[in-house]
């Protein structure tokens, strides 16, 4: 009776747990081993997947590192117990949370050594070193110092510089200028503008003697040319001129779109402008003369007057010879004196003119000639011609039914757009400017992406990860539903009356109590319920006496015990021993 009361007081979950434990003990050894192996494999797969997903992300510690330095760095990382990974191109990666700590600890050890040698290379010069080796060390020192200076720029992660210094010659005509190449490794997502690139170019040019700016080339890690090109392209313009043309064209486009977008809305206007810019440099010098003018309005530059006075016989003159020694003949023409002049009158020179004297007067006058000298230098970058094309989208207007439909613009509206664009771009028909305004319906730019396309893109981008997780999922499902589930199902399945274990013996719990015995359904059900007495009815329909019900249940249990003793005396003896050894 005490055992029945104890069985009734036991919780259901504990009874089920005891039943599962007893059933597991009754399983054959091969099934027990298979069940345990399946549980261990399932646990290993789950733990492995968790560890795989929790692997630390690695970040590049050093890149483009030499083999010798790479060996020293990895050895130091092993001593510091820091995991690392080696990649292509001399790349060493460590966990992201240990990058800066590893760099500081390696820098304290002077690693990597070959990454940035400077003028400290000249501190330990060997005695008797050759001039060539000394020159090479000096060149390496300059390259290292310049690389350190350039790496101080915020956008530059690392830099390498190669300087080519030609051999000096005693002949001036054979002198060659040095050249330099700069390789920049920029941080991810960083760029450099032309001002920064020009600063690097001038920095290198100023650090190397006789190195002109045009001989310095700067490229990034992708091989893109960052320095300005000195050579002309096929159009005859350098990069600066091409950039100026694009700037002029973009300026006109922005001006056109900014004046039309408030009217038609953003995205409904597209404009393109082509500018013909003249970059020719013209210097013109002209010298012009005006026609000769009358003496009165002309300016006198200089005047020369020469007077000579002749005195007849008083002064001998003429060509030496016989004719000169003969007396002069009589005058054939009368001597004409200036008006009002009498013999003995003073001449312009202040001398008195005799009666037989003759006056000779020469006057030379120089006038200034009109002269115009004009020196003209035409400006560069003058816009010679503009060509503009503007496309305007249809207006979205509601129709009679209230549906919004694209509606073309009227001729008056297009003419207004023409006038606005002409005023905005400074239209000049004399220089040959052209303008074309077109009204057309724009195609829908936003094409809806279907679910099938999204799934296809996701599968194509994550194929390797999906395959890995699919294999793990298949393994887990097989272990769970193919091995573990059938065994667990057998363990938690309710015991049928009269059912025996795998070894043919009746099932008992840990305390040796029967879980199922051979007999009628009523007795088996009563035993499976833990020996609980249920009140029934007599043959005449009257309620059965509780004492009679208990007695009947006692008889059933007694009969079950007898069957157990008959079928398995050894187990019965073991149960009795456990009862005797227990306190119950």
TrEMBL record:
One family name in Pfam for this protein: YscJ_FliF
Residues forming coiled coils: none
Segments forming domain Flagellar M-ring N-terminal: 54-227
The UniProt record lists the keyword Cell membrane: yes
Stored InterPro entries: AMP-bd_C_sf (IPR045851), Flag_M-ring_C (IPR013556), FlgMring_FliF (IPR000067), FliF_N_dom (IPR006182), YscJ/FliF (IPR043427)
Biased composition (Low complexity): 527-541
Cited function: The M ring may be actively involved in energy transduction.
Similarity section: Belongs to the FliF family.
Name the UniProt record assigns to this protein: Flagellar M-ring protein
